[in-house]
Amino acid sequence: MKYVIIGGDAAGMSAAMQIIRHDQQAKVTTLEKGDVYSYSQCGLPYFIGGDIESSSKLIARSVDTFRNKYGIDARCGHEVTEVDTDQQTVKGRILKSDKPFEISYDKLLIATGADPVFPDWPGKKLDCIFTLKTIADGENILKGLSKDVQRAVIIGGGYIGLEMAEAFYNRKIGVTMIDRGSRLAKVFDPDMSELIHEEAKNKGIKVVLNEEVQGFQGDSAVKAVETNIGAYEADIVIVAAGIAPNTSFLKQTDIELGVKNGVKVNKYMETNIKNVYAAGDCALQYHRVKEAYDYIPLGTNANKMGRLAGMNMIGQRRPFAGITGTSIIKFIDLELGRSGLTEQDAEKLGLDIESVKIKSTDIAGYFPGKHPLWVKLIAEKGSKKLLGGQFIGKQGAAKRTDVIATALYSGLTLTDIEDLDISYAPPFNSVWDPVQQAARRFK
């Protein structure tokens, strides 16, 4: 059986490892456009910020390991440009030689991930303007910082934007964040985003909202970012305006695409075409709370989906149970955690909801070293079924995010949450966990 996997990172290599571990006769070929396999994209801002000393620390397994230890035909610099699902072939070009290649498959996994969105703004090819996805991107940004960089502009206020703002802050570089929306971190409700804005202000980070980037000024290197309102001086620019599934090469096929052009898959990671699977940031995920497919590209989802895709490709049928939209972000001195629906999500779905927001503490209120912890819970009126939770604080947000993620996965109500047997000792928690404190505030 010939297995071909397009993509050599989280989803693709999780699938490849499942295949070779359970099918000794399998012939597995992986096609990666870049030069590095199986690396942590999520660790790149911390490499740039100086927390991680070497980019090699972010590589889980090298290409040589996949080839020599596991017998995978792991190819680098192979860009796939066409999939023929009738003939069951994959075509593309070898980047170094610009020569074409073609390979046949019995089963195919599309695990091409997502690419940064970079609009065609005037001046986008000036030096010192970067996106961040690959290890090469991270290393290029570090090279850019070797010059006399005093002012960084970040376009976008999502995960990467916040993490890169922290990286530059740690390097004592002045930061301006520009977002076309009315607030940063739109995965949180506005009343929680205010806490993020306050942290940015306290740390001297300038936040520019409701402005559209128009282009860049500079000679050979960028000197400023232009918006519809004004211009902001910059020695380095990070474009973190979101990501999009890398699926454009599939548009000439009958493979069905959905939200944001992510590949539609069933619970077994199968597309609508026989013998073709998809997983990771290029594919959609079933959202257990929304009860619909959504596009939430995260490393946790990619690894799970890839593992299950590999199992299903070799006939070990196991469904993907879905996601609840859980994420955690570190922004300088704050942990920002959330899972499930925001109020805005619930309103779009036409749900009748109620919410509670409280200010508690991460540990017992009388214990030395306590920190404020803001908790927001969202529930369905009547049934009191939990729909979402958001947590922001210096410590303790991550712990509570995981509690809520588990509760959402299990479909618990507010009463169920009150009844949870959550660990307690004064150095770690209050006798009533902040999650339970919030649950008890509902009428």
Distinctive features:
alpha/beta; five-stranded parallel sheet; 11 helices; 25 strands; FAD/NAD-linked_Rdtase_dimer_sf; flavoprotein; globular; 25% helix; 443 residues; oxidoreductase; FAD
Describe the structure.
The chain is of the alpha/beta class and 443 residues long. Helices cover 25% and strands 28% of the residues. The protein contains 11 helices and 25 strands. A 5-stranded parallel beta sheet has the order 3-2-1-7-18. It has a 5-stranded parallel beta sheet with strand order 9-16-10-11-12, covered by helices on one side. A 5-stranded antiparallel beta sheet has the order 21-22-25-24-23, sandwiched between helices. Helix 1 (10-22) packs parallel to helix 7 (299-313). The longest helix is centred in the C-terminal third of the chain and has 15 residues, at 299-313. The chain is globular and about 65 Å long.
Helix content: 10-25%
Distance, first to last CA: 59 Å
Rg result: 23 Å
The structure class reads: alpha/beta
State the helix count.
11
* Main pleated sheet: 5 strands, parallel
Spans of at least 5 consecutive residues with low confidence: none
How would the global form be characterised? globular
State mean pLDDT (0 to 100 scale).
97
Strands, total number: 25
The proportion of residues in beta strands is 25-35%
Physical arrangement of strands within the biggest beta sheet:
3-2-1-7-18
